[in-house]
Amino acid sequence: LKVTDASLARAIKNLKNAGYQGRELDVYVIMGLPGQSAEEVIESMLFVVSLGVKVRLTSFSPIPGTKDWFRSVELYRMPEDIDPLLTNNSIYPLNREDFTFDTFRQLRRLSKVFNFGIDHDINFFDQSQLAKKIRSVIKQKI
């Protein structure tokens, strides 16, 4: 079941009302789903950080027999009988020209920057000059 933006925001609000700090809360974002772009991952990361909590990136790894397995076979010319060990998060990105291993690495670096901000109460979404500069640098790097 996919979580909606509204339900995630409500859950985070409830956890914070219960006394949790943003730096204590992590939200997982899957990257590398069949057909998913790096921009979609960045949008998800920005939404999570806008809620004042940390983003944890996890890499998609197709599971044999699932809908996403067959989508991966179709979209990325992945052999249907490939050994599942070759679809783990360190090998699978190598099969995609549009979402490379380097993209995975850059997104992980970006998540570390965002999480540093959460840990140090830096609001990347305010209108200060620092926040504007950070957003422009991020846009240039991705």
Strand tally, please? 2
User: Low-confidence spans: pLDDT under 50, at least 5 residues?
Assistant: none
- The Rg value, from CA coordinates, equals 17 Å
Alpha plus pi helix count: 5
H/E element order:
HEHEHHH
Using the alpha-carbon principal axes, give the shape: globular
Q: Biggest β-sheet, characterized?
A: 2 strands, parallel
pLDDT averaged over residues: 85
Strand content: 5-15%
The first-to-last residue Cα distance is 29 Å
What share of residues is helical? 40-55%
Task: Describe what you observe in this structure.
The chain has 142 residues and is mostly helical. The protein is 48% helix and 8% strand. The chain is built from five helices and two strands, in the order αβαβααα. It has a two-stranded parallel ribbon with strand order 1-2. β1 (26-31), α2 (38-50) and β2 form a beta-alpha-beta unit. The chain is globular and about 50 Å long. The mean pLDDT is 85.
What's this, in brief?
By secondary structure, the protein is mainly alpha-helical.
Write the layout of secondary structure elements.
Layout: H1 5-17, E1 26-31, H2 38-50, E2 54-59, H3 67-76, H4 101-119, H5 129-141
Helix pairs in contact: 2-4
Key attributes of the depicted protein:
142 residues; mainly alpha; two-stranded parallel ribbon; 8% strand
